[in-house]
Amino acid sequence: MRKSFLTCCLLMNAALGVLVHASASAQSPDTTTYRLTGTRIALGQDIRIERDEEVTDAAIVVGGSLNVDGRVRDGVVVVGGNLHLSSTADVRGDVVLVGGTLTRDPGAQLTGGVDYISFGDWSRRNFAWFPSVRFGEFGRWISLAGTLARVSVLGVLMVMMLIVARARVARVGRAALAEPLRAFVIGLAAEIFFVPLLIAASIGLAMTIIGIPFVAILVPIAIVIAMFAFVLGFTALACRIGEWIEDRLGWQPGNAFVATAIGFVLLLTPSLLARMVDVSSAGVTPLTFTMMAIALTVEFVAWTTGLGAAIITGLGRWYTVPPPITTPPVQPNAAQPA
Questions:
Q1: Angstrom distance (rounded) from CA 56 to CA 40
Q2: Is residue 209 pLDDT above 70, yes or no?
């Protein structure tokens, strides 16, 4: 009897020890040793706060997503991405999400509020280094407004070009229409090598003490000349296209402003139509994609050809093709007196 009693006491002590150990284990604090880091800031990429990492300040991500496995002491801000809190995450402070969503696993600790600011759907391109933000349907209206603003500014610049450089516009336009392939190749080469040559020239000047001040002069002058060449070439090409259309339709030759307006509408209408269709459609359809591709191709060819023609003619200072030969009308011979 005494042996049975001792056996029961031993079993009860063992069970009680197991329960106490389990309770202590459940109530014991996290013994993870954290490595401290300062503020985590990322632009255009995703970041992860590891299990043994403790961010002493805030975690800020713009154009990417944030995954938290460790601890953040002073809040989280995610712009253009999503926030994921794993079961071991411990975030203290407020969370601000702009255009993203919060995923919280069971066990994740969050002390503070969550503020959502959403403009619609956000998307990223396939290139991780080049984030793209799309403000839902509102983004299409922004794109349309940007295209309208660009077209308006270009129209004003073209009018000014016709006013101050009408003779240059005529020379460049004649070269563009006479040798379009040559003008396109030269313009394409200029677009490719402009920046490398400008950088090489700046480095060469910077290597000399005398040339250092000229670097600050070279870069803005080169950019202004390039912009002038682009606008001059585009204006000249639009003017020549308008004159060609007037001739084919049998219209009487008008002034340069009317011809330029015709070419301007013909070259830029595809871009405006593509943006309008993009706004009215529910998503990126084959029609909108095709129209945008056509619009970009038309503008690229026009800008490149005009630039090449401007370079060929020395920004319109000389002719490279002979002017058209005009034959005077033959006057009927007067009847000889008998």
A1: 9
A2: no
For the CA atoms of 207, 211, 212, 213, the dihedral, rounded to the nearest 10 degrees, stands at 180
- Spatial CA neighbour of 136 closest among 95, 80, 82: 80
**Cα(227)–Cα(221) distance, rounded to whole angstroms?**
10
The pTM is what?
0.55
Q: Which residue has the tokens 């990417």?
A: 64
What are the φ/ψ torsions at residue 256 (nearest 5 degrees)?
-65, -30
pLDDT in tens, 218-243: 888 999 999 999 999 999 999 999 98
Which amino acid type is present at position 100?
G
Structure tokens at 162: 């016709």
Four-CA torsion 93, 94, 97, 102, nearest 10 degrees? 70
SS3 251: coil
Nearest of 95, 239, 261 to residue 170 by alpha carbon: 239
Rounded to whole angstroms, the maximal C-alpha distance in the chain is 170
| pLDDT tens for each residue of 40-69 | 888 778 889 988 888 888 888 887 889 999
Q: How is 86-136 classified by DSSP, letter by letter?
A: -TT-EEES-EEEES--EEE-TT-EEES-EEEE--S-----S-TTS-----H
CA distance 265 to 151: 10
CA geometry: angle 325, 326, 332, nearest 5 deg: 140
Residue 116 main-chain phi, psi, to 5 deg: -105, 130
Number of H helices, E strands in the chain: 7, 14
**Three-state SS string across 17-31, please?**
HHHHHHHHHHHCCCC
Other beta carbons within 10 angstroms of residue 185's beta carbon come to 14
